[in-house]
Predict the structure.
Amino acid sequence: MGEVCDQRPKRRATVKNFDIQGIDLSVPVERAFSFIADPGHLPIWTSAFASVAKGRAVMRTPSGEVDIELGVRASAEHGTVDWRMTFADGSVATAFSRLVAIDPEHCVYSFVLTPPPVPLEQLEGALNEQSRTLAEELRKLKGILERHE
């Protein structure tokens, strides 16, 4: 008799490759959008950006600071603010976010965190760390936006 060949599909180990977080904001959606869509504000509420100017940014990474190209696509009509970060080696990281008005004085901000451009074996740890950082950044953003002027 010949050998038996198992033709069933193999189950792959599942690695989480995204994270979605959101926060309620007690400010009008227009005010939140104006602040979040301005890339110059990134160093104020995120820990990843040391500086931003004219389509470039200095990012803080575990290996030190790196200069990147920063693209921002924002649509007030759709409430979206998306970022594309291109590193010197050509690798690209992306982040996607959306604001939704709940009523004239409140909105929800949601953020889709995608995996950083790191080798697969580092992905889960890197994404988990970014997820913890994002939660802190969203709390900081809430505090900034809701602060009375």
Observations:
- The beta strands are 19-25, 49-53, 56-61, 64-75, 80-86, 92-103, 106-113.
- The first helix runs from residue 29 to 37.
